[in-house]
Write a structure and sequence with these properties.
81% helix; mainly alpha; 150 residues; 0% strand; flat; Four Helix Bundle (Hemerythrin (Met), subunit A); 2 domains
């Protein structure tokens, strides 16, 4: 990656960082307002509690995004920005333009998603088998109960 490209992507990353910081500031301000307000009725308090939980999750998500941005800026400084952290190949400029904080090339990202999806599918299959097994046990118990009553 040449100097001009590095400067371009650094600007993209810094713009994303500014957006995240602005969003974090607004969310934190809203959360602070909720914490300071005194709800007179229980329903309002429940709603405020739900709002606080939702805002906290948004803040947490944006904080993780800020960590990704800082990681990308470190990579720019050490000269490894634009290289896949898994295979070491260059990440396409189109991908970096779309997601300036990308750390994986498309091939490695697809592989990661397939592995993640595969694990989720296997977990769902195990849960399904457990449910089916549990249903069979339940049916057997029903049959046993039915025989005892006859």
């Amino acid at each position: 990656m040449n100097k001009k490209e590095r400067e371009y992507f650094t600007r993209l990353i810094l713009e994303e960082r500014k957006r995240k910081l602005d969003t974090l500031g607004r969310l934190q301000g809203t959360l602070d307002e909720i914490n300071e307000s005194r709800a007179a009725e229980y329903e309002e308090e429940v709603t405020l509690s739900d709002d606080k939980e939702y805002l906290s999750k948004l803040i947490e998500q944006d904080a993780r995004g800020l960590e990704e941005i800082n990681h990308s800026l470190e990579k720019v400084l050490d000269g490894t920005y634009g290289k896949c952290e898994h295979c070491g190949e260059l990440i396409s400029k189109d991908r970096l333009e779309a997601i300036p904080t990308a750390i994986l090339c498309m091939n490695c990202k697809r592989q990661e998603e397939q592995e993640s999806l595969g694990g989720r599918v296997r977990r769902q299959e195990r849960v399904q088998r457990i449910k089916l097994h549990g249903e069979e046990d339940s049916e057997r118990e029903d049959l046993a109960i039915g025989t005892e009553e006859e």
